[in-house]
Amino acid sequence: PRTDPAPVTGWPAEFAARYRALRYWRDETFGAFLATRADRHATRTAVVGPSLHTGRWTRLTYAELDRAAGAVHARLRAAGVRPRDRVLLQLPNCVEYATYLFGVLRSGAWPVFTLPGHREAELTDFCRIADAAAHILGGPGPRGADPRATAQRVAGRLRATGHVPPLVVDAGAALPEPATAPPPAETGAEEVAFLQLSGGTTGTPKLIPRTPADYLYSVRESARICGVGPETVMLVTLPAAHNFPMSSPGILGVLHAGGTVVMAPDPSPPTAFGLIESERVTMTSVVPPVLQAWLPAARRTGHDLGSLDVVQVGGARLADAVAARVGPDLGARLQQVFGMAEGLVNYTRLDEPDDLVTGTQGRPISPDDEIRVVDGDGRDVPPGTEGLLLTRGPYTIRGYYRAGAAGFTPDGFYRTGDLVRRLPSGHLVVTGRAKDQINRGGEKIAAEEVEGHLLAHPRLRDAAVVAMPDRFLGERVCAFVIPDGPPAPSAAELRRHLDERGIAGYKVPDRFEIVAEFPVSAVGKTSRRDLRRALTDLLRANT
Ligand code: J2J
């Protein structure tokens, strides 16, 4: 039998009461969410995209999506999946993403939002932490990887440590008759409904418990702030599992409002521009490197991008100069989004003046988002000066899943690890980061996690993984490694080692610096963090 989900650090009663009284938190659950929309918008198009099952470009109305979600629920139930079981959801962008997402939610099981690029190292960790009952997969993974083969390796690793492997569910298979669907599970709006992934800063991943009450508040407000309505056609170019395309306002915000979600198989200009033209896309969300690829391509494209109204950019810092090109090159309005899967999301508003839209990362969704900007000792810095961002509010978690309150202040503020300046208008400018994380074009990589995998190599004595500035991705991953004496393993050998460890491709260092000792400027540092900081400074000075 699976373990019960461990208790989660929730909001203190007085905060919960306030959020309820202000109608931030409501009774809607995800099971009801889709059914209500299916009643209201039955014949409107909900989701468009490739289908894993038929291999064809597919359109689902709200009624069809609801029926398909019911069939997924029936299938999961027949397979023994029960409410509150944890289920890894690992699919590329396709119509099944939506049917399986809502099918799992309807069953009351908790989706764990893994990325298509995650491999056996990450998946095994997620299975162990969440004691996953099932793993939904399909399609080829990145670089042609077969997710079924990966799942088999996960099963081997889990068995070796006495864990029960999850049941594998192929989302490309035919579904049972929706008529056999049980009614949606009766779970509460303030109970955990899914686990989102944290960018992470430590050796083991952290999972983020979110409830319908808190998440749907952020989704409704995001849809309102971003002007999402029944006429919105949203192109999903980022992996759908990311919190940004899921909720800011993302897939859920668009379905909330009766609009249409278009699943892009990849974010390249030919694919994205072709879909913008053929589906009359009005809005999309991208990370800065994707935008940087789009801008020059848009100037010479033959595709009609005239339907595009809003381009949201977030996940990593957008340079002000690039921000200024969105209007001229794409003929769309820019919206900057600075968010995090733990909660807090900031938007520049669509009617704000250009200098705020191009020069800041926006302001919080909610009047009850509490923002503190503090120094290293936790004292508030003077207004307008750089400091560490702490936040607390109606949709920001109070603790990670099965991890207590590490990463939070005693009074419940989440330590974002981001360095910001706060303007008198409340807008935040992201000025840097004070966490052991690399932001590789929006993908977050915990330095310690990669170091751990490197140190498992028998011939390395030490390893420090840091961010390396990069024109396109903002940052790439650089590993400084000290061999255990000659001959030193080559970079190719270390890449092979990491491939065997089974880590996601985006985490594999882009560059290896094989050194006898850490550089002079970095030695004598008392903590790993200081060492990483010195190495980062060194790389920055040399590029
Ligand atoms: C600088 N850094 C940013 C930005 C995120 C909407 C949008 C993004 C995310 C996301 C999200 C940034 N400028 N505009 O969940 O709902 C960095 C910060 C932050 C971390 C969170 C959403 N936007 N960041 O990126 O959980 O360092 O969420 O703390 O993946 O990304 O990463 P993640």
From TrEMBL:
<dbReference type="InterPro" id="IPR050237">
    <property type="entry name" value="ATP-dep_AMP-bd_enzyme"/>
</dbReference>
<comment type="pathway">
    <text>Lipid metabolism; fatty acid beta-oxidation.</text>
</comment>
<dbReference type="InterPro" id="IPR020845">
    <property type="entry name" value="AMP-binding_CS"/>
</dbReference>
<feature type="domain" description="AMP-dependent synthetase/ligase">
    <location>
        <begin position="35"/>
        <end position="401"/>
    </location>
</feature>
<dbReference type="Pfam" id="PF13193">
    <property type="entry name" value="AMP-binding_C"/>
</dbReference>
<keyword id="KW-0472">Membrane</keyword>
<dbReference type="InterPro" id="IPR042099">
    <property type="entry name" value="ANL_N_sf"/>
</dbReference>
<dbReference type="Pfam" id="PF00501">
    <property type="entry name" value="AMP-binding"/>
</dbReference>
<feature type="domain" description="AMP-binding enzyme C-terminal">
    <location>
        <begin position="449"/>
        <end position="525"/>
    </location>
</feature>
<dbReference type="InterPro" id="IPR000873">
    <property type="entry name" value="AMP-dep_synth/lig_dom"/>
</dbReference>
<dbReference type="InterPro" id="IPR045851">
    <property type="entry name" value="AMP-bd_C_sf"/>
</dbReference>
<dbReference type="InterPro" id="IPR025110">
    <property type="entry name" value="AMP-bd_C"/>
</dbReference>
<protein>
    <recommendedName>
        <fullName>Long-chain-fatty-acid--CoA ligase</fullName>
        <ecNumber>6.2.1.3</ecNumber>
    </recommendedName>
</protein>
<keyword id="KW-0436">Ligase</keyword>
